[in-house]
Amino acid sequence: MSIAELLINRASVIFDVGPRDIRSPYRADHIAIARHAVCKVASELGVTMTAIGPALNRDRCTARDSRDRAAFLEKTDPAFAARLDALRREAMGENL
User: Any idea what the CATH number is for the domain that residue 22 is in?
Assistant: First the structure.
């Protein structure tokens, strides 16, 4: 299983969204924020946007924009920042 797939599975639990929804074309906020978190943590782990985009059924530019949105939300939304930190901790705990 790829790092992206592992992050999607972990994010689905933390954000209470199904993995299929994270990969889906749906743009509802509760789904998109989970996708943003996956892109941000994947990037921090060294996964390229070219690799993470297809795992989310997105192109690399959309994945990059999602990562950037996560960075903004981390600074402005404490609830998102807490869940993003939880995803980071799980990713680091798994040594992805």
Answer: 1.10.1750.10
Q: How far is 31 from 8, CA to CA, in rounded Å?
A: 11
Cβ atoms of 63 and 53 closer than 8 Å: yes
Sign of the C-alpha dihedral, residues 31, 49, 88, 90? positive
Range of the domain at 73: 3-93
pLDDT along the chain (96 residues), means of 10: 92 97 95 98 95 95 98 98 97 73
Name the pTM for this structure: 0.94
Domain count, the chain: 1
CA separation for the pair 22, 31 (Å, rounded): 6
pLDDT at 17: 97
Task: Please provide the DSSP assignment of 61-87 as one string.
Answer: HHHHHHHHHHHHHHHH-HHHHHHHHHH
